[in-house]
Write a structure and sequence with these properties.
Layout lengths: L3 E4 L2 H12 L7 H23 L12 E6 L4 E6 L6 H7 L8 H17 L2 H13 L11 E9 L6 E6 L4 E7 L6 E8 L9 H11 L7 E3 L22 H12 L7 E7 L5 E7 L15 E6 L2 E4 L14 E6 L15 H21 L3 H21 L4 H7 L2 E3 L8 E2 L1 H6 L7 E6 L3 H4 L6 H5 L5 E3 L7 H5 L1 E2 L2 E5 L17 H12 L3 H15 L5 E4 L8 E4 L7 H9 L10 E4 L4 H13 L3 H17 L7 H15 L1
Parallel strand pairs: 2-8, 11-13, 16-17, 16-19, 20-22
Antiparallel strand pairs: 1-6, 2-3, 3-7, 4-5, 4-7, 5-6, 9-10, 10-13, 11-12, 14-15, 14-17, 18-19, 21-22
Helix pairs in contact: 1-4, 4-5, 16-18, 19-20
Bound molecules: adenosine-5'-diphosphate (ADP) and magnesium ion.
The site of magnesium ion has 5 residues, from α2.
Length: about 650
C-alpha cells in the first residue's frame, strides 16, 4: 500500500530538533509519556462507551502492554484504548495544537542552551518543560531512531500506520488490520539505548513514574501488572507515598515542579467525592489565558469525564491541578449537562472551602506562603472582586507589599496592617502602580511616611478593581491615597516621628494663609479647564505639587489602565495639590502677591502641573510646550 509523506509543522520540527540534540539525563521519561498517553486513550474510550457501550463489547478490560524485543531492538507500548483514525494521527502527531507554542519553544531553546554550557540541572529543567507543554509523545525521539504508531480507532475497521525518524517529516499508510481496537507505539531504539530492552530496568521505570496509573500495565507478557493499577486518589493517605503523589502530580498537571501543596481528602455527607488536588510550585504558562480554565479533572466513580468541567472550581482557583471523583453524579452525565448542575456547585463549594482551609494552614510557614502568594496572589485577588461568598476568607489570605519601613520588601497581611494603624486613622490606605519600588517614591506617599502611616503598595492589574468591590476590612474602608479625600489631618503620627519634623519645617517656610489663597486663585485662573480644582495639600512634605483624584472619579492608575485598553477617551480632570511648606511654592506666593499673574509666573504654574504628571509617570500632554517652558526656565538659572 502506498504511503503519504507529510512534513511536520514548523513548531514540531523545532521541538524535535531540541529533543534529539539535547543531552537529557533522564531519557527514561519517554516511557512515562507513552504510558501516560496510553492511559489517556483508555480513559477517553471508557467515557465514550458510557453512551456507546458497543464500542467495548469485544473487550472491556482496559490494559497497557509493554513488549521488549531484543532482536529487533524495539520497545512497544500497546493499549486497547480509543485509538486514532488516519486524520487524527496526522493532526495529533504532526502538530502541536496549543496556543503559545512559539513562546514556549523559545523558552525551551533558551534553557537548553544555558544547560549545555553549564549545569545539567538547567538542561533537565528546560526539557521538563516539554512535559508541561503536553508534547510528551515526541519525547520518544530522545531514544528512538524511528517511531511507528499503529492504530485502529474503536468502532472502525481500518488500521493506519504513522512512521517517522523525527527528521522533518512523517509517513502514513494503511496497514493490514490490527486485530483489535487501540494503539501500538513501536520505538526502534538508537544505538546505545539498549538499557530500555531490559525487563528489570523497565520495571523500575514503571514503578518510579507510572505506579499511580489506574490501568494495569503488563510488562513483557507477565500476568501480574507492574503497577498497582488503582486510582491514587481512592487510596487512603496512609497508602500513598510522597513519591507517588509527586508522580501523579506530574502526570495530571503536565508539570515537573514540586507541588507547593498536596490536598487529598474524601468528602462524606450529602454528596460523596474524593479530591486529590495540587497547588503548583511554579506558575503554569497559561495562567492568564482569557479563558481562565482550571486544571481539575472530573471523574465519576473512577471514569474520567472531562478536563475542564465548568463550575467545578472557581476561576480564581484555576491554578489548581488534580482530580475530583464523584460517587453521586450519574455516569451518563454529558459534558454539556455539567454546567449549572447543582451537584457540581455543591462540590465546588466543598473544594473551595477545603483549599482555602489548607492555604490558611500554609500561612504558618511564612516563606512557603510568600512563594505561593508570589505565584498565585494575583489570581486569588480576582476572587476578592468576583466572589462575595468567600471574600472574608480571601481577605485573611491576602498579602500586599507595604510602605512600612519595618516591612519593606516583605508582604504584609491586613491584620498586620490594622495592628499598626495610627491613632485617628480610620482607613486602610493603598496606592496602585507598576512596581512597589516606583510606588515607594511617589509624592503621594510623603505625608503618610512623615506621619509613619503605612500604605499598601498594590501592583497587580486586579488591584485597581477589588478595593472598591470589597469596601471594608474589619470595619475599616479601603482608600486610595491618590484621592483628594485621603485626609491626613486627623491622624496622629507616632511620637518623635514625622510630626515634629514637619512642624519645624512649618515654621521655616509657612506662607501666610491669605497669600496662599491668592496663589491658589491665580493658579486656578491660569490652568482653567485643565484641572478640576487647585488645593493646598496636607499630604506633601517633600514635593511642591501632586495630582489627586476627586472623590467619585476614577483612580489615577485605573484611568491609565483603561486608557491603554481604549476604554477611556476623554481624560479625567484631576485636582492639583500644592505644598505650602515647599520653598518653591512659598516663593511663588510671594511673587504672586508682589506682581500678580506675570507671564513668567504662568509658565511656572504650567511647568508645575507637568511636574506633577511626570511624578505619576504620566507624560505631559503637550510635550512641545513643556520643553519650551523648561528651556526658558533653565535659561534663568545658568
Ligand atoms: P498530550 O498527551 O499532552 O495531549 P502528547 O504529545 O503526549 O500530548 O500526545 C499528543 C496526542 O496524540 C494526544 O493528545 C492524543 O490525541 C494522541 N495520542 C498519543 N498517544 C496516543 C495513544 N496511545 N492512543 C490514542 N491517541 C494517542
Ligand atoms: Mg501525553
Amino acid at each position: 500500500m502506498s504511503e503519504t509523506r507529510i512534513p511536520f509543522r514548523a513548531e514540531v520540527s523545532r521541538l524535535l530538533e531540541i529533543v534529539v540534540h539535547s543531552l537529557y539525563s533522564e531519557k527514561e521519561i519517554f516511557l512515562r509519556e507513552l504510558i501516560s498517553n496510553a492511559s489517556d486513550a483508555c480513559d477517553k474510550l471508557r467515557y465514550e462507551a458510557l453512551t456507546q457501550p458497543e464500542l467495548i463489547d469485544d473487550d472491556s478490560g482496559f490494559r497497557i502492554d509493554i513488549a521488549l524485543d531484543k532482536k529487533a531492538r524495539t520497545l512497544t507500548v500497546s493499549d486497547n484504548g480509543l485509538g486514532m483514525t488516519r486524520d487524527e494521527m496526522v493532526e495529533n502527531l504532526g502538530t502541536i495544537a496549543r496556543s503559545g507554542t512559539g513562546a514556549f519553544l523559545d523558552r525551551l531553546a533558551e534553557s537548553v542552551a544555558a544547560g549545555s554550557e553549564a549545569k545539567k540541572d538547567d538542561a533537565s529543567r528546560g526539557l521538563s518543560l516539554i512535559g508541561q507543554f503536553g508534547v510528551g509523545f515526541y519525547a520518544a525521539f530522545m531514544v528512538a531512531q524511528m517511531v511507528e504508531v499503529k492504530s485502529r480507532k474503536a468502532g472502525t475497521d481500518e488500521t493506519w500506520c504513522w512512521r517517522s525518524d523525527g527528521k522533518g517529516e512523517f509517513a502514513v499508510e494503511e496497514e493490514d488490520n490490527r486485530a483489535a481496537r487501540g494503539t501500538d507505539v513501536i520505538v526502534y531504539l538508537r544505538q546505545g539505548e539498549d538499557e530500555f530492552l531490559d525487563v528489570d530496568r523497565a520495571r523500575t521505570i514503571i514503578g518510579k513514574y507510572s505506579d499511580h496509573i489506574a490501568i494495569p500495565i503488563h510488562l513483557d507478557g507477565e500476568d501480574k501488572p507492574a503497577n498497582r493499577a488503582s486510582a491514587l486518589w481512592m487510596r487512603s493517605k496512609a497508602e500513598a507515598t510522597p513519591d507517588q503523589y509527586k508522580e501523579f502530580y506530574h502526570h495530571v498537571a503536565h508539570a515537573f515542579d514540586e507541588a507547593a501543596l498536596t490536598i487529598h481528602w474524601k468528602a462524606e455527607g450529602r454528596l460523596e467525592y474524593a479530591g486529590l488536588l495540587f497547588v503548583p510550585g511554579a506558575k503554569p504558562y497559561d495562567l492568564f489565558d482569557p479563558q481562565r480554565r482550571h486544571g481539575v479533572k472530573l471523574y465519576v466513580r473512577r471514569v474520567f469525564i472531562t478536563d475542564h468541567a465548568e463550575g467545578l472550581v472557581p476561576s480564581w482557583l484555576r491554578f489548581l491541578r488534580g482530580v475530583v471523583d464523584s460517587e453521586d453524579l450519574p455516569l451518563n452525565v454529558s459534558r454539556e449537562m455539567l454546567q449549572n448542575n447543582p451537584m457540581i456547585s455543591h462540590i465546588r463549594r466543598g473544594v473551595t472551602r477545603k483549599v482555602l482551609g489548607e492555604l490558611g494552614k500554609l500561612m504558618a510557614d511564612e516563606k512557603a506562603y510568600a512563594a505561593f502568594w508570589g505565584n498565585f496572589g494575583a489570581v486569588m485577588k480576582e476572587g476578592l472582586y468576583e466572589d462575595a461568598d468567600n471574600r472574608e476568607e480571601l481577605l485573611k489570605l491576602l498579602r500586599c507589599a507595604s510602605s512600612a519601613e519595618s516591612a519593606f520588601g516583605a508582604l504584609v497581611s491586613l491584620d498586620a496592617y490594622v495592628g499598626r494603624m495610627k491613632e485617628g486613622q480610620e482607613a486602610i490606605y493603598y496606592i496602585c502602580g507598576e512596581s512597589a519600588e516606583k510606588l515607594s517614591r511617589s509624592p503621594h506617599l510623603e505625608g503618610f511616611r512623615a506621619k509613619g502611616v503605612e500604605v499598601l503598595l498594590l501592583t497587580d492589574t486586579v488591584d485597581d478593581f477589588w478595593p472598591a468591590a470589597v469596601g471594608t476590612y474589619d470595619g475599616k474602608s479601603f482608600k486610595s491615597i491618590t484621592r483628594a479625600s485621603a485626609e491626613l489631618d486627623k491622624i496622629r503620627g507616632a511620637a518623635g516621628e514625622g510630626d515634629k519634623a514637619a512642624d519645624k519645617k512649618d515654621e521655616e517656610s509657612k506662607v501666610a494663609a491669605g497669600d496662599m489663597a491668592s496663589l491658589v486663585a491665580l493658579v486656578k485662573l491660569t490652568l482653567g479647564e485643565e484641572v478640576k480644582d487647585v488645593r493646598v495639600s496636607a499630604r506633601l512634605t517633600e514635593s511642591p505639587v501632586c495630582l489627586a483624584a476627586d472623590e467619585g472619579d476614577l483612580d489615577i492608575h485605573l484611568e491609565r489602565f483603561l486608557k491603554q485598553h481604549n476604554q477611556v477617551r476623554v481624560p479625567i480632570k484631576r485636582i492639583l495639590e500644592m505644598n505650602s511648606k515647599h520653598p518653591l511654592i512659598a516663593r511663588l506666593a510671594e511673587r504672586a502677591k508682589a506682581k500678580g499673574a506675570s507671564e513668567t509666573l504662568q509658565d511656572v504654574v504650567w511647568l508645575l502641573l507637568d511636574q506633577a504628571r511626570l511624578a505619576d509617570g504620566e507624560a505631559p500632554p503637550d510635550t512641545a510646550a513643556f520643553a519650551r517652558r523648561l528651556g526658558e526656565a533653565l535659561l534663568k538659572v545658568v
